[in-house]
Design goal:
It is an enzyme of class 2 (transferase). With 243 residues, the chain is of the alpha/beta class. Helices cover 51% and strands 15% of the residues. It starts with 6 loop residues before the first helix and ends with a helix. The chain binds adenosine-5'-triphosphate (ATP), 2-(4-methyl-thiazol-5-yl)-ethanol and magnesium ion.
């Protein structure tokens, strides 16, 4: 099922991130901002986090990809969203939606519905979030749907990928799902097939999680080791871990 996503392919996408150093503009939640920025840097990408509706499109204009995360959506963030959608549409820029807790509020569901109208949209959520969005996604042809958990499932126009890497400690540090969405966006900036881009990002993140778990004593040191493991991931490690 993942025949097109071997270690060489993943390494090639990661090398393109390291070479191009794409900026990912993150309209994200206040909890996950720091860990998201640090994971992007460890991955070789560059974060920008502007929120103000009157500057967000200027700041994002030269970014390689955009992330919209609904986790602590504010009135200001809500006004920034159409600016980013307009920019992504005009420039054909990749946009990833992280529908945090979309099942908890009609406001989030309405915002998700607007964002899902963007052609080529990529959505990454956990099982509950993706289940809540299922009726909307069923009416969204061309979207890439990513459900993370013990096994990550990527349903893309180019096919289905399943990633069985990672570690349960990844659920004990807040914002790692949010950070994974940003890494998917970074790969979308350098790889036109969003299925392969998401597969590379989540394989790298999962393998870094496995390595970090071997080095850590609990969730605190795990977060630190995860940044280090992601920053030093190389093709030889991918080959060994992907088998
Ligand atoms: N039980 C598990 N075993 C291995 N890896 C896991 C497990 N659960 C989650 N992961 C990994 O953790 C990362 C985050 O996924 P998760 O589904 O926990 O996100 P999330 O619920 O959106 O997190 P958050 O909202 O806290 O940011 C993914 O890379 C995923 O593969
Ligand atoms: C804990 C939390 N609350 C809103 S966003 C967030 C980070 C994980 O999604
Ligand atoms: Mg989440």
């Amino acid at each position: 099922m993942n025949a097109r996503l071997d270690a060489t392919r993943v390494a090639s996408i990661l090398a393109r991130v390291a070479q191009a150093r794409p900026r990912v503009h993150c309209l994200t939640n206040t909890v996950a901002q720091n860990v998201t920025a640090n994971m992007l840097l460890a991955f070789g990408a560059i974060p920008s986090m502007a929120v103000h509706p009157d500057e967000v499109a200027d700041v994002a204009a030269a970014a390689g990809a955009i992330l919209i995360n609904l986790g602590t959506i504010s009135p200001e963030g809500e006004r920034a969203i159409p600016r980013l959608l307009e920019l992504a549409r005009a420039q054909g820029k990749p946009l990833v939606l992280d529908p945090v807790f979309v099942e908890l509020s009609p406001l989030r569901m309405r915002l998700a519905e607007d964002i899902l109208r963007l052609p080529g949209i990529v959505v990454r959520g956990n099982g509950g979030e993706m289940q809540a969005l299922a009726p909307l996604l069923a009416a969204t042809p061309g979207a890439t749907r990513i459900t993370t958990g013990a096994v990550d499932r990527i349903e893309a126009p180019s096919g289905l990928f399943e990633i069985a890497h990672g570690h349960p400690l990844m659920t004990k540090v807040t914002g790692l799902g949010c950070a994974s969405s940003a890494l998917v966006a970074a790969c979308c900036a350098v790889e036109p097939d969003p299925g392969l881009a998401a597969g590379a990002a989540l394989t790298a993140f999962g393998i870094a999680g496995e390595i970090a778990a071997e080095r850590s004593a609990g969730p605190g040191s795990f977060a630190m080791h995860l940044i280090d493991a992601l920053a030093s991931l190389d093709e030889a490690t991918l080959l060994t871990r992907m088998g």
